[in-house]
Fold each of these.
Amino acid sequence: MQLNQLSPAKGAKRKRKRLGRGVGSGLGKTSGRGHKGSNSRSGGGVRPGFEGGQMPLQRRLPKRGFTNIFKKRIALINISDLSRFEAGTVVDEIALVRSGLVKGRRDGIKLLGNGDIDRSLTVRVNAVSQTAREKIENNGGTIEVV
């Protein structure tokens, strides 16, 4: 089979409904909207979620919990992720974003101690776990909390 032999499945391609093109088309005059009423008029219809006056679903369901608007979004990075940097480099927010380890909106970066490291690095982050601090310093690196 080749690209020029491909064709859509039978019944997959249908012509667009052309409204208001005469009585003989079957969709002339009122264009399939019927006579009078809200939906027959332009801009007619009801808003999303409206159930004809019945209490809408989003109001019938119980509400639980709350959203903390002061929540901090902290990007988490493990020691094992730092193996992509060469020995002696300064690993800061800019370096982490460039390497693709940190993405999107964040309020800080925290280094966690999962994994091992075999080189000395200077790491500048907002928070560090105790095990991560020990592993970096045992390899001759330094941690700077900014």
Note: Strands lie at 74-78, 90-91, 108-112, 122-125, 127-128, 142-145.
Amino acid sequence: MDEMKTAMKAKDTVTLQTVRLIRSAFANAAIDLKTQALSDEQAVDVLKKMAKMRQESIKMFADGGADDRADAERAELKVIERWLPELASEDQVREWVQQAIAEAGSENMGKVMGALMKNHKAEVDGKVAQKIVKEELAKQ
């Protein structure tokens, strides 16, 4: 609510519209989960889904030559990212992947990804993790 008030006073329509979309997404998720309020983890999951949708839209609009629409999506993505936790660096993910390989005791990508995500789901970008797991398994 504070962010909405600030955006209204500053006449920042992008932030205002995006915050309204976030609030709506939270309300819909709460209804879907049959709860009054989302936990922090559930709220982050909703924000991650919203960010992923924006990233996909940016790519599609840019590929289609609709640069104005891509720019609008980028602006929304910046607002959404304010509330997303910072993700681990590739070096940190690589270290966790090596631990997950040792923990899983296998060269099965699914088992390694499962072990990694069990411990670090909120801190890791899935695409980056998948790339690093492939690289590390190829080394063995």
Note: The mean pLDDT is 89.
Amino acid sequence: MFDLLMAVLHHIIIFALFGVLLAEVVTVRRGMDAAAVMRISAMDLWYGVLAGLIVVVGFVRAIFAAKGWHYYEHNAFFWAKIATFVVIGLLSVPPTLQYPKWRRAGIAPTDDAIAKVRRYLLIEVVLFVPLLALAAAMARGYGWFG
């Protein structure tokens, strides 16, 4: 039962994170105003909280759930998935640093600043495709090198 609960929780948090990321993509657009900047700051906080929860629940699941750590530590797709998640996390840093600057300025960001942040967000969205493909392959036993 623990394995099922951890799997469900892990998936719910991942989908929530993706939903927040899509909300950021929709909100960060040309013509956004100071109110949108405030909303995006709150969304980005949730993005960070959810990302942290994914890591915690994911490793609890990997270590204590049905397959156990031995399965994951010897799986190349697991490590590729982790690396992809780290890249997504690193790509989220520039927008996270930019939002408070926009908020403190108290004015709408320039179109150039918005375009730059959107590029990071869109690359994050695109990287979810290989992330999910790696997770699906890993769960089916592909990538085992032990």
Note: The radius of gyration is 17 Å.
Amino acid sequence: MKVEFMVESQLKKFNKKIIVTGGCGYIGSKLVPYLINKGYVVKVIDKMDFGNNLKNLKNLTVVNKDLFDCDVSDFQGYSSVIHLAALSNDPLCNFKPSDNFVQNLACVSLVGFLSKNAGVKKFIQAGSCSVYGKNLNNCSDETIRPHSDFPYGISKLQSEKSLKLLMDDNFKVTVLRQATVYGWAPRMRTDLVVNTMTKTAILDNVINVDNPDACRPLIHIDDLCKVYSKVLTTDSPFIMNVSVENYKIIDIAEQVRQKIIEYLPDVEINVKNVNEPRSYFVDNSLMKKTVGVWNYKTIDYCIDELIAHIPVSDMEEWSNPDYINLKMYKKNYYDITKVGGTT
């Protein structure tokens, strides 16, 4: 696969006005304040499916708007777009595949098209390592041909192809194939593997493992924010894996247990040995070459952080259904008694 980089002369043209779509969600609620602290003027476009989780900050404009209602004028005057807006994770996308393909493919194509025609110079797409599906070979790097056969992974892969059609010398695209993200954020999620294991340990004194041999790459949300910030001003390839560490699911569970027993000594691991359709390790050498290396956040750090924000005694908060994307989506858009879903 040809690796395409942004040339230095175009980086110099950048102003510090950027748009973050879906910026009120999990990643955005951490990324937007981070970028503002870096001196950016940020406009967020978000239809608020998960509420507005951004504080009133200087140099921030939040627009409550569906991206399908946007036109070129919404993107004019901005140098870069970070496209976070999406339906995230497999349970949500499996629940309503048609919604998945509309939001994760059609919406990406539209926002890319509008951005290019508005004169935006750089477009950063929140992609996913899920495009690798079930790869049982060695670490997947950006040169292999991905294969995924479930809605979320398919839509993410197809959106990459759509964006590549829009690329030219004046419109540079970088797709960040993100590992599974974890850590605390103002718009909290407890449906991500490390956060989920911490939650069930606190609520049930057990860490459930579906398939101990399944593999998954991880990155803490703070490290992900740093990657986005660096990609804004760095020569960047079209496709880049964004991951800090590869784990087997059982190894994640063991690390969570070893840390959580400092708070709750009786936590156990429950291995279910059920099928897991996703399993992949990813190579992160291109990320390190592109944006550098720093002291990454760890699972131990994450658990201390989560408990600092939500104490182990606060069972109601740990049980909050609004921290699970699928439950929030059903509540917002569907009568679960009709679709047969559960909350």
Note: The CA atoms of residues 217 and 246 lie 4 Å apart.
